Every structure is written in structure tokens, then in C-alpha cells.
From TrEMBL:
Ca(2+) 1 binds at residues 94, 97, 99, 101, 103, 115. Residues 52-348 form the Plant heme peroxidase family profile domain. This is Peroxidase. Binds 2 calcium ions per subunit. GO terms for biological process: hydrogen peroxide catabolic process; response to oxidative stress. It is found in: Secreted. It catalyses: 2 a phenolic donor + H2O2 = 2 a phenolic radical donor + 2 H2O. The record marks 89 as: Transition state stabilizer. PANTHER family: PEROXIDASE 16-RELATED, PTHR31517. Disulfide bonds join 62-143, 95-100, 149-344, 229-256. Its EC number is 1.11.1.7. Pfam families: peroxidase (PF00141). Ca(2+) 2 binds at residues 223, 268, 271, 276.
Length: 366
């Protein structure tokens, strides 16, 4: 028998599909939410760290790493807060496609900076890639080439969450960069589509050893950022999705008047630039943007988590830190695996080839 507390704790666990969402039950959640807040212990619970990663990995080799990242992004976000959501999504894509190894950053990877023909569902913001490259330059100036691009992406995602009002958490470091490109096939099979039903979403997450709770929790990242019409127009045309609030749908039709509009809109209509639990409140009001969002409220396996997070932001934050840390350790390379890329957009082997001024026939010089 699962108790309310076992649902709330940011630890592995499933909950019974029949978990009651009654008023009394919700009232208990609310009480426990308030109780926890007033005791205000801000120590988050982390999953076990993968061998080779640690919170103090660069303590001696790059002691200023985290402050360099923080101050660069602080300035960047002052001029354009929207880069924050781009950076958060970048880390997600990096981790889901062949592990958090920076491969999504490579020029030439599907979804990477050079992928001009990527479908809109893969459009990662160019500004986010640029921020990673600029950060790497600053970090290399300060510490030499010791910090991986995958770690920079993880730190940038963390600071994006924090800068927009989300939880302040620690990131295990020590990831190494991958030596191969992310293929189109990997991208398509591991990045869930916004048109997915909950079963398909659970399948993708399960494949990566992530739980149903991780799915709901991590979807909460949609509390910031924007989306293109193409990501949700299946809910407007040819017919209006019945799970969509009609007034919300009317607004969406203004932004996306017909198929193939290139317009964008915010994902969380309540507080689009603030990392909070309003995304879950949106779902309760049938104002989730994607099928993959709204479905979480309509499926008995995921609905209880949606309700809890909508009622209690603290529970969302605690679980978010836990699930993000899990996601951030997916298939990481450590120790002597992979390498430290000297340019986040290119493999070192390609750089050497450049430096040696080859004639384009052979990528390998060593
Ligand atoms: C559960 C499955 C998920 C699906 C189906 C999904 C799908 C999408 C889609 C279609 C977009 C809009 C792309 C566009 O039209 O430009 C988007 C945006 C976004 N996603 Fe997800 N996503 C999922 C999970 C996640 C996770 C786990 C995170 C991070 C932890 C995340 C973070 C974001 C952010 C921050 C944006 C806004 C990007 C921006 O403003 O440029 N998503 N997602
Ligand atoms: C992205 O959209 C294309 C069509 O534009 C579709 O073929 C593909 O399956 C989608 N992939 C994902 C991961 O959503
Ligand atoms: C969910 O999506 C999968 C894959 O797209 C499909 O095979 C399945 O029939 C769908 N399930 C439901 C209940 O719609
Ligand atoms: C884009 O959205 C605006 C309003 O948000 C709308 O007036 C315009 O018609 C849309 N354009 C296209 C091409 O969909
Ligand atoms: C939208 O684009 C698709 C393929 O890109 C095309 O088949 C379809 O006719 C277009 N629809 C409209 C309404 O323009
Ligand atoms: C990094 O690599 C990319 C892709 O090869 C290239 O366009 C860019 O100029 C390089 N950046 C630096 C600073 O060398
Ligand atoms: C990088 O080098 C590999 C061989 O090591 C080569 O096949 C590939 O085309 C190069 N990619 C780019 C973008 O230069």
C-alpha cells in the first residue's frame, strides 16, 4: 500500500494507478506541502552518482568553473531570458540521444547547429549552441582544455532553471565528450514526439531506465519556453482536440490560423518565463500545449503526479532535482572514455585534420 508520502518523496517508486485524487487526499498533500515548506530544509535528495562523476570534480583543475558559467549566463539572460529554455532543452536532447556526451552539440549531428533541414520538432535554438561555445572559450581561457562540453551543457541547464526561479541544485561533474555524431535514427527513436500518447512516452522513458514519475517530473520543464505551431497543430487541424480547453484553443488558432504556420507560442500560458509549477496547473485546466503534455492529466498512471505537483511546487522542485540528476547521468562517459573536446561543435579528430591542413581525404591524422 502506497502512502501519500511515498508519492511525494523524490525517490524511485511507482504508485498505484488507483491512487485517489479525492479532496481529502489533496487536502493532506497541501498540508504536508505547507508543513515541509515551513520547516524549510533546502537540502535536496540526489540519486546515487555514477562512478566517475562527483560534485567536486573540477575543484582543483578549474575551481572557478561554476562562477564563470553563472556570471556569463546571468549577463546573457539579462538581455535575453529566452535562451534559458533553449539551454535546458539542449541538455535534455543531449542526454536522451546516446547519453550526456555532448554529441548533440556537434556540427553535423542531427539536430546540431548545422542541421538546417531538421524538422521543427528538433529545432534547438542557435542562441543556446552559441552560449555553450562562448562559455567553453571563457572556461578554456581560465583553466585550459579540461572541462567537457557535456558538463558545460549540464551546468548551463542548471543555471537556466535557477535563473528563471527554479530550484538551486548541485550538478555531478566529470562527464567526457563522445567521439561520434548523433545520428538521425537515434534522435528519432529516443526523442519522444509531442504527438505521443502516454504509453509511448512511458516506453521511451523506460528504455532509458527512467520511471513514470521521472516522466511527469521532467515534463515540468515545459514551464518555460516556446513551441512552433508544427508541434501542436495536430490538435487544431483538421479538427479541434476535445481534450483542449475551448477558450485556450481559440487563442491557439489566432497564433496558428492554418496548417504549416511558422509562428511560435509560449508553452506555459500562465508564467511562460518562470520556472514554477504552473505548467501542471495548466494541465488541470486543459491548457497543456502538446498532446504529450495534456495526456499526462488524462492517464491514470500519470495523473496523480500532475495533481500533486500542481498543488505543491515544493514537491515538484524536489522531484525535479532528483529526476534531472538521473537524466544528467544517462550513459555518461567517464575516466578515460571519450575525450575533452577542444571545440564543442567539432570532434577533435576533425580539428586535427583542419590544423594539419589536410586535403579532405582522410579525417584521421593520428
Ligand atoms: C516528455 C517528452 C517530451 C516531449 C514530447 C517534448 C517535446 C517538446 C517540443 C515539441 C518542444 C517545442 C519545440 C518547438 O516547437 O520549437 C519542446 C520544447 C521544450 N522542451 Fe520538451 N519535450 C519533452 C520533454 C522535455 C524534457 C525532459 C525537458 C527538460 C528537462 C524539456 C525541455 C523543453 C524546453 C525547456 C522547451 C522550450 C524550448 C525553447 O524555448 O526553445 N522537454 N519540447
Ligand atoms: C518530427 O517531425 C517529423 C515530421 O516533420 C516526423 O517525421 C518525426 O517523426 C518527428 N520526430 C520527432 C522526434 O518528433
Ligand atoms: C499510443 O501510441 C502508440 C504508438 O504511436 C500506438 O501504437 C498505440 O495504439 C497508442 N495507444 C493508444 C491507447 O492510443
Ligand atoms: C502568426 O500569429 C499572428 C498572431 O499571433 C497572426 O496574426 C498571424 O496570422 C500568424 N501568421 C501565420 C503565418 O500563421
Ligand atoms: C503543409 O505542408 C505539407 C507538407 O510540408 C503539405 O503536404 C500540406 O499540403 C501543407 N498544408 C497546407 C494547408 O498548406
Ligand atoms: C568550432 O568548430 C566549428 C565547426 O567545425 C567551426 O565552425 C568553428 O569556427 C569552430 N570554432 C572555433 C573557435 O574554432
Ligand atoms: C569529421 O571527421 C570524420 C572522420 O573522422 C569525417 O567522416 C567527417 O565527415 C568529418 N565531419 C566534418 C563535419 O568535417
Amino acid at each position: 500500500m502506497k502512502t501519500a508520502a511515498s508519492i511525494l518523496r523524490p525517490e524511485p517508486g511507482t504508485i498505484s494507478p488507483t491512487a485517489p485524487a479525492s479532496m481529502a487526499y489533496n487536502f493532506l498533500f497541501l498540508l504536508s506541502c505547507i508543513a515541509v515548506v515551513s520547516s524549510s530544509s533546502h537540502a535536496y535528495v540526489y540519486p546515487p552518482l555514477v562512478e566517475g562523476l562527483s560534485f567536486t570534480f573540477y575543484k582543483s583543475t578549474c575551481p572557478d568553473l561554476e562562477s564563470i558559467v553563472r556570471s556569463y549566463l546571468k549577463q546573457l539572460f539579462q538581455s535575453d531570458i529566452s535562451v534559458a529554455s533553449g539551454l535546458l532543452r539542449l541538455h535534455f536532447h543531449d542526454c536522451f540521444v546516446q547519453g550526456c556526451d555532448g554529441s548533440i552539440l556537434l556540427d553535423g549531428s542531427f539536430g546540431g547547429p548545422s542541421e538546417k533541414d531538421a524538422p521543427p520538432n528538433l529545432t534547438l535554438r542557435p542562441a543556446a549552441f552559441k552560449a555553450i561555445d562562448e562559455l567553453q572559450t571563457l572556461i578554456t581561457q581560465a583553466c585550459g582544455p579540461v572541462v567537457s562540453c557535456a558538463d558545460i551543457a549540464a551546468l548551463a541547464a542548471r543555471d537556466s532553471v535557477r535563473s528563471t526561479g527554479g530550484p538551486k541544485y548541485k550538478v555531478p561533474l566529470g562527464r567526457r565528450d563522445g567521439l561520434s555524431y548523433a545520428t538521425e535514427e537515434d534522435v528519432l527513436s529516443f526523442l519522444p514526439s509531442p504527438t505521443s500518447n502516454v504509453t509511448a512516452l512511458i516506453d521511451v522513458f523506460t528504455e532509458l531506465d527512467l520511471t513514470i514519475k521521472d516522466l511527469v517530473t521532467l515534463s515540468g520543464a515545459h514551464t518555460i519556453g516556446i513551441a512552433h505551431c508544427s508541434s501542436f497543430e495536430d490538435r487544431l487541424f483538421p479538427t479541434q482536440d476535445s481534450t483542449l480547453d475551448p477558450i485556450f484553443a481559440e487563442k491557439l488558432y489566432l497564433t496558428c490560423p492554418a496548417l504549416n504556420s511558422t509562428n511560435t507560442t509560449v508553452i506555459d500560458i500562465r508564467t511562460p518565463n518562470t520556472f514554477d509549477n504552473k505548467y501542471f496547473v495548466d494541465l488541470l485546466h486543459r491548457e497543456g500545449l502538446f498532446t504529450s503534455d495534456q495526456g499526462l492529466y488524462d492517464d491514470s498512471r500519470t495523473k496523480p503526479f500532475v495533481i500533486v505537483f500542481a498543488l505543491c511546487q515544493r514537491m515538484f522542485f524536489e522531484n525535479f532535482v532528483y529526476s534531472m540528476t538521473k537524466m544528467g547521468q544517462l550513459s555518461v562517459l567517464t575516466g578515460s572514455q571519450g575525450d575533452i573536446r577542444r571545440n564543442c561543435s567539432a570532434l577533435n579528430s576533425n580539428l586535427s585534420w583542419y590544423a594539419v591542413d589536410g586535403d579532405g581525404h582522410d579525417g584521421k591524422v593520428f
